[in-house]
Predict the structure.
Amino acid sequence: NYCEAQATFTVTVKAYAVSAEIIANGTSVCPNTSATLTASSSVSGAVYHWHQLKADGEYHIVSTGATYTTPALTEAASYKVTVTGTNLCEQAVDAGKSVDVNVLTKITDIELTPAVSDFVIGGNDVKTLTITPSNAVYNTIWTANGKPIEVETDGHVQNTVEKTFVDTEYRVEVIGECSRDTLYATTTVVW
């Protein structure tokens, strides 16, 4: 003699989250400064994990939460953020959203060339600003004999001062994004 019973159960298969479901952007910081990274998603009940690429070439978890503040950085750092939610499994770290933090470089030198040039009526004179290192972030203020002038985006002077038939000293003030150091360079056009 035996009894027969029936049981019913439900199996729910959850999908994996994908990086397209995460909104997170990289940023740039000055040396020895931390960055605050933020992730968001439309995933219900989202839980975020931040992973940093370490020297061993592997990503290691460094934080949980929508916001992660890095330690003070001296070099660029790469992160992945992953998400899990109410009806989603967390994706593999390699499938997470990439978030990079770039560390800005300090300007070490500027040069405005040529140092002196002769100008003839009807002629052209091009001044070139060279910033070292070339990947530094900076702002410039250009003047000609003390009066502000505009420049093209590639650093060549345009809209120079009116032809006064006097020597013109061009000066550029370069303000570094991080150091707030101000460097100057001058060059002269001889009429």
Notes: The chain has a mean pLDDT of 80. The longest strand covers residues 168-176. The two ends are 118 Å apart (CA to CA). The CA atoms of residues 122 and 163 lie 10 Å apart.
